[in-house]
Amino acid sequence: MNTKRNVWLVAVLGALIIGLGLGYLINGGSANPESTSDGVHAHQEGVSYTCSMHPQINQPDPGSCPICGMALIPAETIAANTDQSAVVGLSDNAQALAQIQTVVLSASKQSKSTQQLSGTIEVNEERKTNQIAQFDMRIEHLLVSSDGQYVRKGQELARVYSASLLQAQQELLTAAKLKDEQPEWYEAVRNKLRYMKLSENFIDQIEASEKPRAQFSIYAESAATVLKVNVKEGDYLKAGMPLFELADLSTVWLIFDAYEQQIDRFELGQPMRISIEALKAEEFDATVTFIDPILNSRSRVTRVRAELRNTKELLKPGMFVKARIDVGSTRREEALMVPSSAVLWTGERSVVYVQPDSTKPNYQLTTVKIGRRSDNYYEVLSGLQAGDRVVVNGAFVIDASAQLKGQPSMMNAQVGKPMPGTHDHGDTYNSSAVFSESENRLIADLLPIYLSLKNALVASDVNGASQSATAALTKLSSLQGQSDISSSIEALVYGFQRISEAVSIELQRDAFIALSEQLIAWASHGKSTEETLYVQFCPMANNNLGAKWISTEAEIRNPYYGDAMLTCGSVVEVLSL
Question: pLDDT-based confidence at 30, cuts 50/70/90?
């Protein structure tokens, strides 16, 4: 019995050995358990798989991307030759798929860019006057009774009765009889009438007639347009009270609002090209004549003023006007400029990826402070220096890789918290932005306007997007100025302003990227709103760097492409606030 059992065991072991040998021969003697003969990555314990185009995908097994169908690849680990947590390493294959491109920064001469401003035509305050009552009077008859009338110098405006003037005339007649004996008194009485703005001719007529007048006329002191008639027939007025508000409209002021971030772009004497909406065929040249030294604490704007001659009387106070100005920074003649495609935005932070060694596919996250935008470049105020090699294409793919691994990234300033929407679905963005209670209320009010703006971009509606952005600016203007409103609101103001002034859907969509990141940073803190928000992501937007937006529907409606790629994208985070 035992002998038969031993024979059975030997037979089983022999079959097992033969099977292992055949398997070795069939697989070509390969000892690599990670790949199979068809080139598809096999499952390996501890390895996760992602999509090069949709880095939010994270699966324990190989296969195809559920979004685009591309083959999943192993998620790369940070390069072994560095221990810096902010450095992301990519394999040659991942770098090729991401189409990484870099440029070396160098200081360059300040270039000029065109800045557009919106404003209104206003009355030239230096040519504005009030014609006042020079003595106590009663209005008997108004000859100019409506606003907007043009009057000539010396034109009769009204006829009045004045008891004090009647008394002064009687005094003149008495003094005239005694002028040889008391010439000083006689001259003092005539001066009294002169101070009442009576002409020498009128005084001489009274003296010659030897009879005082009960009524007399008020005449225009200068040629002007009547802005406001302050009296009506029968009114009694004391000396010093205003009769008419007048303005010389031969020149007018053009008043433009410049936001806080734009102030350094303007200087006295800058030429500007003026266009007026009501006069489509007319354009005018002007120069900056005044920059208000005081910033409005509520709207965060200051006034930029120009003056324009109005010889044809086509320019009416209240008309909307736009200006194009060639601007540059007044800080320095040379500046370090970084391509706009290199900068990733999130709330108050802006970051770039720098390649420390051009021979190694390692990229370091760097926080930068940027200034003005000139065409497709931003001025670098701090964080970079000449000679740095920065990523200008593929930066978002690098950042997505960092988020997958829990490394510092544009949306995660700290190590150890992976990107939301991957393997830890309960996480939210770890944005560094901090919002006050007033800001939370303000942004909650802005959210419906933002969603309306998003829908306009989906429909490729330039005017609709501009109107929504203008509505947001009005809301920001009305609610700012509270003591606990911080500079984080300025990013919203700047974003909505760019969209309201943009002349094409492409420029509006470009500005929408940073605006969305700011609102995502706010929403990720679980602020008060009754709706469920979906953070959605399109890898093709922003020149293949990818871009996000907020929606109240899970169904994808892409604001960056509209009908061209309406359903391109995916939900990367659900925020139930």
Answer: very low
Summarize the confidence of residues 420-432 as an average pLDDT.
32
At 554, phi and psi to the nearest 5?
Answer: -70, -25
Range 432-461 average pLDDT = 78
CA distances in angstroms from 265 to 74, 321, 500, listed in the order given: 48, 19, 19
Cα separation of 432 and 466, whole Å? 30
CATH of the domain at 320: 2.40.30.170
Specify the DSSP element, H or E, that contains 122: strand 113-123
Same domain, 174 and 262: no
Q: Does residue 33 form part of some domain? A: no
Provide the number of structural domains found in the chain: 4
Q: What phi, psi does 456 have (nearest 5°)?
A: -65, -40
441 lies in the same domain as 568 = yes
pLDDT tens digits, 551-569: 988 889 999 998 888 888 8
Nearest to 522 by CA among 385, 404, 391, 428: 428
540 inside domain:
yes
Write out the residue range of the structural domain in which residue 443 sits: 437-576
Q: How far apart are alpha carbons 155 and 417 in whole angstroms?
A: 80
Based on the fold, state whether residues 119 and 131 are members of the same structural domain: no
For residue range 279-320, list pLDDT tens digits in order. 876 788 999 999 999 888 877 788 999 999 998 888 999 899
Residue 543 CA, distance from chain mean position: 21
Enclosing H/E stretch for 499: helix 488-501
Q: Where are the alpha helices (DSSP H) in 249-338?
A: none
N- to C-terminal Cα separation, the chain: 74
Whether 198 and 311 map to the same domain: the answer is no
Distances (CA, A) of 165 to 183, 200, 299, 457, 577: 21, 15, 51, 70, 76
Least confidently predicted of 166-175, 255-264, 518-527: 518-527
Give the pLDDT score at 360. Answer: 85
pTM, 2 dp: 0.44
Is there a domain that residue 484 lies in?
yes
Q: Is residue 183 part of a domain?
A: yes
Q: What is the CATH number of the domain that holds 209?
A: 2.40.50.100
